[in-house]
Amino acid sequence: MIALNFEKCGGLVPTIVQDFETGEVLMLAFINEEAWRETLKTGRATYWSRTRQELWVKGETSGHVQWVREIRIDCDDDTVLLKVDQVGEAACHMGYRSCFFKKVEGESVRVVGEKIFDPQEVYK
Questions:
Q1: Regions of the chain where pLDDT drops below 50
Q2: Smaller CB count within 10 Å for the chain: N or C?
Q3: What distance, in Å, lies between the first and last C-alpha atoms of the chain?
Q4: Residue 58 in contact with residue 65, Cβ under 8 Å?
C-alpha cells in the first residue's frame, strides 16, 4: 500500500477533492488508513466521518458518488488531493455543487452557490 503519514493529525489525513475536468474544489474531507485502502481498492472516494466516527463512502446515501481519476500526495505525505468525476451534480451534503458555496465579502458572508437538491429530501 502507498504509505501516508497518518501520525501528524491523530490518524487522519486531510483530503482535498477537486473536479477532474474543471478543477473546481468540491470539498475537504479526512481519510484514515481504512478509508485510504478502500479508495485505492475500489476507485470510489471513501472518507472517515469525524461526526459519525465511521467510514463514509461518498454517495452511498445521496447517489452523488465520486469516482477517483487521479490522486496526488503532498511533499510531506500528509495531505491528499483527489481529482474525481462527481456523479450527480452536488458534492456538498447541504445540496450545493461545492462545499465552498459561501464567499467572504468585507465583514459579511454571502452564498454564491446554487442549491442543487434539498438535503431533507435526500437524507431523510
A1: none
A2: C
A3: 37
A4: yes
What is the bridge-based pairing of β-strands 46-49 and 25-31?
Answer: unpaired
- Number of separate domains in the chain: 1
> Does 99 reside within a domain?
yes
Q: What's the whole-model pTM score?
A: 0.92
pLDDT digits (tens, 9 = 90+) for 29-65: 999 999 999 999 999 999 999 999 999 999 988 899 9
Give the CATH number, domain containing residue 95. 3.10.20.810
Q: Minimal CA–CA distance to 92: which of 26, 23, 15? A: 26
Cα gap 113→111, rounded to integer Å: 6
Range of the domain at 27: 13-119
The cell for 72 is 496526488
